[in-house]
C-alpha cells in the first residue's frame, strides 16, 4: 500500500512520528516535507529526535506570506501527486502544509486522511481555523482527537468518514517524558524546578499585531518591576523574532533581566522545560494539550481555544493578550494536581496511532 504524509511544521513532525512507526509494517510510506519550516531548530532536529528517516521529498518552499507559501506548496505538491500512485495522502493538524496537502491531493483525485480533524476555535480570523475547516470538508477519512471534535464534524455534515481516535499527544508525551529525563537543558540554563515560566508566541494573530506584542513585553517588564521571583524562559520562534526586530521591540525584551531568550529548542528539551516549569504561557494549540497532559498550568494568550477539554478545573486559562490578566494568572496559585491526566479518556488512552493504522488498513482493503 502506498501512503504519503505531507508535513512542514513542528506540530506536523511531532504527530508524524507515531504514525510512521504504526503504518511502516504494512505500507510504502512516503514522507513529503513542504519546507514550511526550514530552520534546523524547527525541522531537522525533530526528525532526529523521533528517529524518523529523512523526508523522501523536500519541496523547499521556505518562508513567505501565508497565501504565497500555500500556493507554492499546492503547485509543487500537485506535480508530485499527479505522477504518483498513492492510495491515500495523510495530512496533520492545521498548518498551511495541512491544507496545501489536502487541496493538492483532492485536485489529483487521491484519497485524503486528516489526522486531528474536527477541532474548532470558531474564530475565522485565525488562518489555522480556515485550514481546519477546508481540510475537513475535502477529506475522506477524518480522525477526530476528541469527542467534541467528532461532534463538530457531524454537525457540519462532512462527507468523509468520521472516527474518534483520541489524540496522538498521549502516546507522544509518554515517550517524550522518558527521553526528557536525559535532557541537560535545565542544568545548562542553571534553573531550579518551578522557578520559571515557560513562554512561547508564534501565531500571526499575535505577532502581526504591534499592540499585542507591546502587551506581552509589558508583562515581562511588570513582572520585573514587581520583583516577581520567576524567570521567563522564551524559546523564540523565527517569525516572532523577526517581527520584534522589525518593530524595534526586541531590544526591550533583551533589557528585561528576568527574561532568558533562547533559539528554538528540540522537542525533548522543550518537554523537559515544560515539565519543570511553574506555568506555561503560550498561544500554541499543541502546547496547551501537552502542558495539560503533563499537569502544568497553562495560560493561553488567546481569546479562544480548540482544545476546550483543557479548560477543565482551571488547568488552562484564556487571557487574550491583556497584560493585567496574564500577570494575575502567572502570580495566582494554580490548581491542585489530583490525578494523572494521561490516565483520563478526555484525549484517549494512548492507542491513537494503532486505531488510525487499523482504520487505514480496513479502508484501503475495501
How does the SSE layout of this entry go?
Blueprint: E1 2-7, H1 10-23, E2 28-33, H2 44-49, E3 57-58, H3 66-82, E4 88-92, H4 96-107, E5 111-115, H5 127-138, E6 141-144, H6 147-156, E7 161-164, H7 169-180, H8 185-188, E8 196-199, H9 204-207, H10 210-225, E9 231-235, H11 238-247, H12 250-254, E10 259-262, H13 267-275, E11 279-282, H14 285-294, E12 298-300, E13 316-318, H15 323-331, H16 352-365
Parallel strand pairs: 1-2, 1-4, 2-3, 4-5, 5-6, 6-7, 8-9, 8-11, 9-10, 11-12, 12-13
Helix pairs in contact: 1-16, 3-4, 4-5, 7-13, 10-15
How would you describe this structure to a colleague?
With 366 residues, the chain is of the alpha/beta class. The protein folds into 2 domains: 181 residues, Glycogen Phosphorylase B (Rossmann fold, 3-Layer(aba) Sandwich), CATH 3.40.50; 168 residues, Rossmann fold, CATH 3.40.50.2000. Helix content is 45%, strand content 15%. A 7-stranded parallel β-sheet has the order 3-2-1-4-5-6-7. A 6-stranded parallel β-sheet has the order 10-9-8-11-12-13, sandwiched between helices. Strand 1, helix 1 and strand 2 form a beta-alpha-beta unit. The model has no long low-confidence stretch (mean pLDDT 92).
Q: Would you kindly provide a brief summary of this structure?
A:
With 366 residues, the protein is of the alpha/beta class.
Task: Based on the model shown, name its key terms.
2 domains; 45% helix; six-stranded parallel sheet; seven-stranded parallel sheet; 366 residues; single chain; Rossmann fold; alpha/beta
Amino acid at each position: 500500500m502506498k501512503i504519503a504524509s505531507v508535513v512542514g511544521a513542528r506540530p506536523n513532525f511531532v504527530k508524524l512520528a507515531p504514525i510512521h512507526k504504526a503504518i511502516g509494517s504494512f505500507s510504502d510510506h512516503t514522507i513529503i516535507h513542504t519546507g514550511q519550516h526550514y530552520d534546523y531548530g524547527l525541522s531537522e532536529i525533530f526528525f532526529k529526535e523521533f528517529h524518523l528517516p529523512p523526508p523522501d521529498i523536500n519541496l523547499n518552499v521556505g518562508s513567505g506570506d501565508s497565501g504565497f507559501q500555500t500556493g507554492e506548496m499546492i503547485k509543487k505538491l500537485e506535480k508530485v501527486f499527479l505522477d504518483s500512485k498513492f492510495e491515500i495522502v495523510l495530512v496533520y493538524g492545521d498548518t498551511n502544509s495541512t491544507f496545501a496537502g489536502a487541496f493538492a491531493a483532492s485536485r489529483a483525485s487521491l484519497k485524503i486522511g486528516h489526522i486531528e480533524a474536527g477541532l474548532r476555535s470558531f474564530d475565522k480570523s485565525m488562518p489555522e481555523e480556515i485550514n481546519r475547516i477546508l481540510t475537513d470538508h475535502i477529506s475522506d477519512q477524518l480522525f477526530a482527537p476528541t469527542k467534541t471534535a467528532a461532534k463538530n464534524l457531524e454537525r457540519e455534515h462532512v462527507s468523509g468518514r468520521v472516527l474518534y481516535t483520541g489524540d496522538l499527544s498521549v502516546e507522544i508525551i509518554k515517550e517524550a517524558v522518558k527521553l526528557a529525563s536525559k535532557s541537560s537543558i535545565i542544568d545548562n540554563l542553571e534553573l531550579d524546578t518551578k522557578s520559571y515560566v515557560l513562554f512561547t508566541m508564534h501565531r500571526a494573530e499575535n505577532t502581526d499585531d504591534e499592540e499585542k506584542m507591546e502587551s506581552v513585553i509589558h508583562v515581562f517588564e511588570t513582572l520585573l518591576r514587581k520583583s516577581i521571583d520567576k524567570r521567563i524562559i522564551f524559546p523564540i520562534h523565527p517569525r516572532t523574532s523577526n517581527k520584534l526586530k522589525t518593530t524595534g521591540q526586541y531590544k526591550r525584551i533583551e533589557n528585561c533581566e528576568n527574561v532568558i531568550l533562547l533559539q528554538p529548542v528540540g522537542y525533548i528539551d522543550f518537554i523537559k522545560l515544560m515539565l519543570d516549569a511553574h506555568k506555561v504561557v503560550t498561544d500554541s494549540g499543541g502546547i496547551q494539550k501537552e502542558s495539560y497532559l503533563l499537569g502544568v498550568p497553562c495560560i493561553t494568550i488567546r481569546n479562544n481555544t480548540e482544545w476546550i477539554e483543557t479548560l477543565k478545573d482551571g488547568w488552562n486559562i484564556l487571557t487574550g493578550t491583556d497584560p493585567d490578566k496574564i500577570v494575575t494568572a502567572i502570580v495566582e496559585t494554580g490548581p491542585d494536581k489530583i490525578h494523572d491526566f494521561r490516565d483520563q479518556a478526555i484525549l484517549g488512552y494512548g492507542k491513537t496511532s494503532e486505531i488510525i493504522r487499523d482504520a487505514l488498513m480496513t479502508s484501503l482493503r475495501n
